[in-house]
Amino acid sequence: MAVDWSSLYAQRLARMGTSAIREILKVAQSPDIIPFAGGWPEAELFPIEQISLICEAVLNERPRESLQYGLTDGLPLLREAIAGYMATRGIPAKAENIVIVSGSQQALDLMGRLFLDEGDTVLVENPTFLGAVQSFNAYGPRYVTVPMDDEGLCVDEVERVLAHERPKFMYLLPTFQNPTGVTTTLARRKRVVALAREAGVPILEDDPYGALRYSGEALPTLAALDGAAQDMDPEQANVIYTSTFSKTLAPGLRLAWVVCPSALAGQFVMAKQGADLHSSSLSQMIAYEFLQRDWLDDQVERIRSTYAARCDAMCQAIADYFPPEAHYTRPEGGLFLWVTLPEGLDTAEMLQDAAAHKVAFVPGAPFYVHGGGQNAFRMTFASVPADIIRQGIQILGGIIREHLARLG
User: Fold this and answer.
1) Domain annotation covers residue 1
2) Other CB atoms closer than 10 Å to residue 40's CB: what's the count?
């Protein structure tokens, strides 16, 4: 008889689900759709010629090292180079504090494997990155949420939560947050780092966009603030830091890293061995050579320049075409802009009308773990040319006005 697959699934499968964003992107793949939905970098900015030169060099000079199995914690040369790069950002790290992972998403999954038993608590921002919730959900946690405002994480609420909760960790995106694009202020950063250390609760700082600042003053990461408070000793770190090459080189490399105390790095390595043995050797060699040849700064500057112009175009178009009831915070970097509309509007319904007019965005509700956000939505400007941005915002402005009129 045929196998009844559904009767064999693990119980954890019921806690897992497909990404709402990925489902929207399936619809948004048509070439005539204006794609404000996906958080994809601009493919025209991928350093294709430089990667091609690197591939030719390493396949000629170090083919076995580039194509063979490698160490689970990553290519030693790359880990050394990333440790040096972290030092330029004020984050104390040696090679033994670095674990190379297959994209930041793997870092999130490994955090769940290492720290979460069913019923454990994770503190998250509200709203928060949907991909993190997907990763953590497999391990059955419960969430406590802390609201965001225009200055980032509401730290008074963190203090209130820590007075009666003991989360296994806090998951925070303080810089150009996904989905809101908001950056947490320096004063709030300092305070949340101090609160976490006082409570003995680690922070997982997810920083995929930090290099992509194009306006405003650069702020220290939570990891840098924590390091400064601990005399720059990476073994005393209370912040686990993760970042990625997906937004600066290319997401197809599937390459990111974790910075943490060396004993914890050993646990990440153990968990990763059971997942994929190691990240791509060739991808690691490409990233190492990019850093070694001092090409990264120029590459990041190209990205910043393009995204800054597109962010300006989106903000100007919003000012021209959106009704005054639409609130947004102008991002200083990253890929995203968050719009909040009056209560009573449902952006999931608006998306249907927008799709009919060939525009896609992400409704806000999936980013809230306990419900809410029906009147908000996320847009990206990174992968859309300025003239197309203006066209799409004009269409959305008309749709918002129609829905406001229906609301009365």
Assistant:
1) no
2) 16
Whole-number Å distance between alpha carbons of 221 and 360 = 32
Q: Are 347 and 357 in contact (CB under 8 A)?
A: no
Strand ranges in 68-223 using DSSP code E only, listed in sequence order: 98-101, 121-126, 142-149, 152-153, 169-172, 203-206
Angle at which helices 104-115 and 262-276 cross, to 10°: 110
Q: Which two tokens stand for residue 39?
A: 């958080």
Return the pLDDT at 28: 56
Q: Are residues 317 and 270 in the same domain?
A: no
The CB density around residue 372, as the number of other CB atoms within 10 Å, is 15
Sign of the four-CA dihedral 264, 283, 251, 388: positive
316 and 401 both lie in a single domain: yes
For 196, phi then psi, to 5°, come to -65, -45
Q: Do 277 and 253 share a domain, yes or no?
A: yes
Would residue 6 count as lying in a domain? no
Q: What are the pLDDT digits (tens) for 101-143?
A: 999 999 999 999 999 999 999 999 999 999 999 999 999 999 9
